[in-house]
Amino acid sequence: MRRRDLAGVLWGGAAWGxxxxxxxxxxxxxxxxxxxxxxxxxxxxxxxxxxxARLDSDRDLPGRIRLVMRRSGDGGRSWGAxxxxxxxxxxxxxxxxxxxxxxxxxxxxxxxGPPGIGFPTAQAGExxxxxxxxxxxxxxxxxxxxxTQPVDLTPRIRDRxxxxxxxxxGTHFVTRRGRMVVPMVVRDENGVISSRNAYSDxxxxxxxxxxxxxxxxxxxxxxxxxxxxxxxxxxxxNQRLVGWSRDGGVSFDRVREDEQLTDAVCNAxxxxxxxxxxxxxxxxxxxxxxxxxxxxxxxxxxGAPRVLHAGxxxxxxxxxxxxxxxxxxxxxxxxxPTERIEFQRLKLAEVAKG
Length: 354
Known about the structure:
The protein is mainly β. It has a single domain (3-352), classed as 6 Propeller (Neuraminidase), CATH 2.120.10.10. The protein contains two helices and 27 strands. The protein has a nine-stranded antiparallel beta sheet with strand order 1-2-3-27-26-25-24-23-22. The protein has a five-stranded mixed beta sheet with strand order 11-10-9-8-13. Strands 12, 14, 15, 16 and 17 form a five-stranded antiparallel beta sheet that branches. The longest helix has 5 residues, at 348-352. 49% of the residues are buried.
């Protein structure tokens, strides 16, 4: 049986001792639904959890959405109040992703939808503007306490023939050589959706974007392996699509469906912690059964999954924490997969046992 301590932590309810904390719940502070988890650890050790506050319904952009954040200073045991990270007067902002550079600078990438514009309704013809779903970025040099004004990256990485584009939500990374890698989803001039990577080699001053990895691929996460190659894990039908890149995530010469990784056609979480890759996803043909598993060979094979939430569940993100633990932020519920967003702190050794 689960019980709640004074810090708001749910204890138990799992076979192997996870610590669970509820951060956002449907209806909280008058918000219809919270969705789309993003998570990062600051250089000082604080945790920042970001989500969509979908004010009127649970729908994507062009719904009325603002970005909200909570902070933990004790490794995820307790969390501060919900604060507004970004809000716009007209339209909405959502699908946040976070990235931390070596010097501690934290980036937040997200989509801005002008009134009436979302992924289904955006149009080709202009680089940016009122008919374009835009990709914005802002950064913080004080561990997320203050942020720069957002910059519209859309004209730097978008082909005007493309119908729509947005950054994948969750957590992204910087390579050992300093390349910022932000997986994108693009619907091209023919209406074909694919994963591809935007990247910057000069700390966000200039940007480029690679080709589509495979038609039909969607939201994705990437990590750099010990040998310098990049591994990408992508939403794709009911099996995860995976690929390896030798040029920093621009092109992929080995792409295949991973038969080990059943998926609910949903965004997943991916992190590299030491020699291990760690993946979280809804391992079912519908949005339920959120699991975590580890790979010790660069994503070629995976150990047995451990269940984080057996009921309805959807998007997730996972990061390595100081001291070697793992942090997972994910959507879940009892009747539906987006009733709340929870945080769990886990032992890497327990996940890697599989």
